[in-house]
Structures are given as structure tokens and as C-alpha cells.
Amino acid sequence: MDCRQAGATLWKGPMFRSILIIGCGSIGERHLRCFQKTGRCDVAVCDSNAALLERIAEVYSVSSFTNLDAALQARSFDAFVICTPAHTHLAIARCGAQHGAALFIEKPLSVTPDEIEETRESISRGGRFTAVAYVYHLMPWIREAREFLHNSDLGAPLHATATSGQHFPTFRPGYREIYYKDHATGGGAIQDALTHQVNAMEWMLGPCTRVFCDASHQLLEGVTVEDTVNISARHGSVLASYAMNQFQAPNEATFQIHCGQGSVKIEVHARRWGVLRHGESEWSWHQTPPLERDDLFTAQANAFLDGMDGKPTPLCTFEEAVQTLKFNLAALRSISAGMPITLS
Ligand SMILES: NC(=O)c1ccc[n+]([C@@H]2O[C@H](COP(=O)([O-])OP(=O)(O)OC[C@H]3O[C@@H](n4cnc5c(N)ncnc54)[C@H](O)[C@@H]3O)[C@@H](O)[C@H]2O)c1
Predict the structure, then answer these.
(1) Residue 269 placed within a domain
(2) Whose CA is nearest to atom 38 of ligand 1?
(3) Domain residues for 101?
(4) Is 186 helix (H, G, I), strand (E, B) or coil?
(5) pLDDT digits (tens, 9 = 90+) for 231-276
(6) 13 pLDDT band (50/70/90 cuts)?
(7) Candidates 47, 110, 304: which one to mutate for ligand 1, based on the most atoms within 8 Å of Cβ?
(8) According to the model, what pLDDT value does residue 15 have?
(9) Counting atoms of ligand 1 from 1, which one is nearest the CA of 86?
(10) Would the pTM of this model clear 0.85, i.e. be above it?
(11) Residue that terminates a domain, selected from 102, 134, 166
(12) How many angstroms is it from 308 CA to the middle of ligand 1?
């Protein structure tokens, strides 16, 4: 057995990776737990909140740092998992690329187009695997439906709808105190929640080319950002519509994609997708068995580690996330302009 030391970490072979989670709030803690579950990496954490960091370090027995400089002075890392609010993602990504680290960046990629080009160049110079954590890419019911659409006899998609919502205060009681309350930090329904459905639709149908958005703050207490969104869009020749709110009782997301010879329906909340051809009266469903909430994130962590090993993965690429960022920004611009926006 080779027991060379790499910094403070016991060396366990070339494929045993050293991962730094930056930002250990809600999703950062989940990534920490799920990367640990893979058994394929050593995980350290960095968060500017010292009290939070102390708890995390104790619960998960990990090395912890209150800032990135301290972490990088202590040792080197094979990958950064960036789980801070969205306006900080790209600066941290460039730091990781300069460090020679692979990058796993939380959604949305950013809140402006400003740093995209320099980050793209930095990633290209660094030459390490990079992906964005749009977790719908790991859902078997999305992946199978996408595969079916791309290879089926239904014909090309012509019309699609995405309807979704949940009671956000139930799932994120602290929403008033976090990044969600401000567009500048990645907040509001469009950048924070709808972005999952948009990215999934783009993955299945191709990039969105036109957005006409109406949105409003309807109900959530203590914030002014939009919690309700209606969008009429085009993904090339496919006409699409999106409807979401963040106060409804059901926690559901449903996609319907209609083609010349039949339709595909995906019920995210029911972990199933179905096909109904012209002439049929019942959906033929494909069901995934129940999963624990962490399972998709552990699968995502494994996919990221596979990507670092040079294997193919279904993860969202940097360029796909740039496209979804363009959608977010066009939707927000469309609200203030009261007009449709064509995406470049
Ligand atoms: N994929 C998903 O399902 C999912 C779910 C929730 C959040 N997210 C995304 O993950 C990101 C974080 O969301 P969250 O809900 O975990 O937020 P959060 O507010 O719970 O946690 C963010 C953490 O980052 C820390 N932080 C901020 N700036 C820092 C810096 N420069 N250096 C070190 N630490 C810093 C904060 O102290 C905080 O603990 C957002 O982009 C959000 O959209 C994704």
C-alpha cells in the first residue's frame, strides 16, 4: 500500500480525491454529507460563518477553514464544490481554476453575464473538469424521458409545458434571511427555483431562444421578489410555457412535451415519466422506486468524481449553465420591459 502524505491527508491512491466544499449552508452541508457517502474522497469545508463551521466540523469530523486563503495555504485540493450564494460563484470558480482544481458550481451559475468570459478563459487554462449542480440531470425519470425523446418514433417536439410549485416557507423557513430575498444575490423564483425546470427543458428540447415573462410578488411574507411566474417561450421551433408559484400546497413539477405522433409527460414529484401515443387512452408509465432525498445528491457527487476521472457524465456543463443564466436574465429583463426578449 502506498501511504505517501499529500499535505495533511493520508494518500489513498490517485483516484481518491481531496474536495473542498465552499459554503456550508443548506446545500453545502448536503454536498458534504453526500461526497462523504461516495467513499471516494476526503472532504474539507470552508465557510465565513465561524459558528456554523464549528458545528459542521464537529458533526462530520472534517477539516474546516473560515476563508479560502486559509484553506489553500494549509493544503491543496483536487476540486472545489462551490455552494455560496450565486453572486460569488464565478470569482471562487476562477480561484479554483488557478489552483488547478476541478469545479462543481451550484446553480444558478451567476446573476450577471459580467464574469462569464474571464471565468471561461480561466477554466480553459486550468484544464480541469467543470460542471454545474443542476440536480435534475441525475433524476432517472428525466434522463430516461430525454433519451426516449431523442430516439423515439413520436417525431420532433412541437409544444411543451412546465408547471411547478411548492410551499417555499415549509421547505426553507429562513427564506427571508438568505440570498433568496434579493435578485442581486440570486434570489426570487426565477433565479432560485424555476431555473431547475428551465435547465431541464433546455436539456431536453435545446436552448431557449425567446422569453416573454410576467411575474409578481403575490404572497410570501417578508420579501418583495417575485414568488409567482408565467412565461411564454420558444426553444427554437418548440413553443413552451412555464408556470410556477412558491406558495401552493402541492410540492409538484410536471413537464408535458407534445410531438407529432404523441406526448411525453414527466411527473418529477412522482418519480415517473410516461408516453401516450395518438389512438391510446392511457399513459404507459415508467416508475422509479422511492429514493431518499440524499440519493440523487450522492449520485451527483459520484458523477462529478467520475467526470474528474475522465468518464462521461450526465451533469450540466458550464456552457449549458451559461445558457440557462441567459434565460434567467432575459426573463427578468422581460418583466421590466413588458416585452418578449430574444436570447442571443
Ligand atoms: N441544487 C439545489 O437543489 C440547491 C438547493 C439549495 C440551494 N442551492 C444553491 O446553492 C447556493 C447556496 O445556497 P444555500 O441554500 O446553501 O445558501 P445558505 O445561505 O444556506 O448557505 C450559504 C453559505 O455560504 C457561506 N458563504 C457566503 N459567502 C462565502 C464566502 N465568500 N466564503 C465562504 N463561505 C461563504 C455563508 O456563510 C453560508 O453559510 C445558491 O446558489 C443556491 O441557489 C441549490
Answers:
(1) yes
(2) 25
(3) 5-134
(4) coil
(5) 999 999 999 999 999 999 999 999 999 999 999 999 999 999 999 9
(6) confident
(7) 47
(8) 85
(9) 41
(10) yes
(11) 134
(12) 23
Cβ 42 under 6 angstroms from ligand 1: no
- Within this chain, do residues 118 and 206 fall inside the same structural domain, yes or no? no
Residue 121's CB: how many other CB atoms inside 10 A? 12
Place of cell 435547465: 199
Domain limit, last residue, from 104, 134, 164: 134
d(C-alpha 263, C-alpha 246), whole Å: 27
Nearest residue to 229 via CA among 327, 148, 94: 327
Question: Is the beta carbon of 274 within 6 A of some atom in ligand 1?
Answer: no
Confidence of residue 181 (pLDDT cuts 50, 70, 90): very high
| Best mutation site among 27, 45, 88, 176 for ligand 1 pocket (most ligand atoms within 8 Å of CB) | 27
Q: Which of 34, 84, 95, 246 to mutate to test ligand 1, by most ligand atoms within 8 A of the CB atom?
A: 84
Quick one: cell of 197? 425546470
CATH code at position 231? 3.30.360.10
Sorted by sequence, the CB contacts under 8 Å of residue 173 that are 6+ apart come out as none
